[in-house]
Every structure is written in structure tokens, then in C-alpha cells.
Amino acid sequence: MSDREDSGRELPVVADPAGDEEPTVNLDREGSPDPSISGAPEEKSPESVPEESDLDRAESAHSAPSEESAQSAPSEESKRIRRPAPAGTLIWVLLALLGFTLVVQLRSNDGDHGLASARQEDLVRILSDLEAQDARLLADIQNLEATRQQLSSGVQGREAALAEATRRSEELGLLAGTVPGRGPGLEILLDRVKASAVLNAVQELRGARGEVMQLNGSNGAAVRVVASSYFVDASGGGIIADGVHLTGPFRLLVIGQPETMRTALQIPGGVVASVQKDGGSVTMDSRSLVEVTAVRKAAALQYARPVS
């Protein structure tokens, strides 16, 4: 048999018992499957697979970090965007200061208009206190001017200075409660009142130029009222004035101008109205001579010395 016949011959096909037939396979001269037949796996030669060169590896190595940096760049940029700029911070600080200034200004304006919402009785009392204070200050100015003129006169200056010193000593003694006093004034009877009512009466009388005061209790105790006096309600009834227990009704003696002090106590919403509203009573009697006999001991100064 020749080579030509041997290469083109067909192999016999053995029938499958199940009736299936296998496809006919042509073999070449070496006995390997023909590549032209469909269904046969195609083997690739080693030369057909491209090898990765060193240059490609280097490029891939350089490209990997660039991709990571490209992914991380947006996050860093977003952080920079969220961070407030110095100019924006300054603007917010200025706005906060402006708002604080406006709030303070509005509150001060509300305080200035506090008298607009006050009652008529309160306004009348405030006006009366201001007028009495104005009159007192004017009288003090006139007295000081007269004293200055007397002291500045040549020959009579020494005598005038001595008389002024004596007068000031007596006046300060009356204010401090170390000497008794007498003069025109009021006798006020306070019944069924608390310590707050007595304190309000004393303050109103001081505003109406009440100069010397004394508070007597029905138990026979008496207290000289001075600038440092205090009044509190006692647990068993009555009040405690400067540490002395007084029981009601109370009798308050005041030296001063009677009509001025009476008007100050009777203003609408004043002491008389408040006491009557609380169930108490206030009786006032003008006297041409009121004697204040209760005195205080002069304080012993431990450190202060007069300047020679």
C-alpha cells in the first residue's frame, strides 16, 4: 500500500450498542487529529502567548500608586473644603458680637422705659421723694454758702469756725443717736403691723426730712432709730429692733416738718394705704414739740484718730 492511500484511508466505525454513533475522525500521517476538523481543541504554541516585559512591569508598578492617589485625592480635597476659612471665621465672630450688642441695647432701652408701666401711686411717690430731696439739697447748698462766707471773713473767722464746729458736732450727735433731741414733729401710732411696715414708714419719713426718730413699744422698751437700725418679725409676736424686742402697738416719734412728713405717709399706695390693706391702722398726730430721749452709746474707735 502506497503513502497516499495510507494517509487518506478511513478507520472503521464501531456501532454503539445504544444506537449512538461517534463522529468519524481523520488521522494524518503521524496519527494526530486534524486541526481543520471542528470540535477538536486547538492547542496554542508557546510562541503565541505574549510575555510581559520588564518595561510593562515597571509601567504597571507606576500606574498602581497613581490610581490609589487618585482615589485618595478627592477625600483630602473634601476635607480641605469642609475646613472653614479664616475670613469666614472672622465674619461669624463679628456677627456674634453684633448680636450681643443689639441684645444689650434692647435691654437697656427696656430699663429706661420702666417708669412708663409704673402705677400712678408709684409715680406720685417717686415724684414726692424727688421733690423733697431737691428741697433738702437746695437748703444744704444755702447753708454751706453762708458758712463759707462767715469763715472767710477776717476777724470773725475764728469765732465763726468754732460755732460751726459746735453746730456740726451737735448735728452729728443727733444723727448718730448719742444725744437727745427736741423739736416739732409727728407722733405716729402703728397697730397690727409687721416689721416691713415699720421699715417702710421709717424710710418714707427719712425721705420727707425726718431728722430724729424713736420707736417705743407697748412693753415699755424704746429704741433710737439711726441709719444702721434694722427691724425683723419676732417669733412670739411683735418685732425686734436693733436687738430689742418691742410689742405692738408701736409709737413712732419723729422730729421734722409735720405737714411734709404727713403727706409722704398718705400718698396713694404709700405706708398708710399698705397698712390698711393688710388689716392694720396708722394714726398720726402733729406736735409742736416732740422729745426724743432714747440715746445710743458712742462707738469706741479702736484704730481711727483725728488728724491734727
Give the number of DSSP strands: 8
Euclidean distance between termini CA atoms: 164 Å
Identify the strand order in the major beta sheet. Answer: 3-2-7-1-8
Which runs of at least 5 residues are low in confidence (pLDDT < 50)? 1-8, 13-22, 24-33, 35-51, 62-70
Residues in helix, %: 40-55%
State which percent range the strand residues make up.
15-25%
Mean pLDDT: 75
Per CATH, the class of one domain reads Alpha Beta
Main sheet characteristics: 5 strands, antiparallel
Remind me, CATH topology of one domain? Answer: Alpha-Beta Plaits
Structural class of the secondary structure composition?
alpha+beta
Return the string of H and E elements.
HHHHHEHEEEEEEHHE
Number of discrete helical segments: 8
Radius of gyration: 57 Å
Characterize the overall form. extended
CATH architecture of one domain: 2-Layer Sandwich
Kindly report the name of the CATH homologous superfamily of one domain. Protein of unknown function DUF881
Features:
308 residues; 5-stranded antiparallel beta sheet; extended; alpha+beta; Alpha-Beta Plaits; 3-stranded antiparallel beta sheet; 8 helices
What would you note in describing this structure?
With 308 residues, the chain is α+β, with helices and mostly antiparallel strands. It has a domain at 161-292: 2-Layer Sandwich (Alpha-Beta Plaits). The protein contains 8 helices and 8 strands. A 5-stranded antiparallel sheet has the order 3-2-7-1-8. A 3-stranded antiparallel sheet has the order 4-5-6, with helices on one face. Helix 4 packs antiparallel against helix 5 (157-176). The longest helix is centred in the middle third of the chain and has 33 residues, at 120-152. It starts with a helix and ends in a 16-residue tail after the last strand.
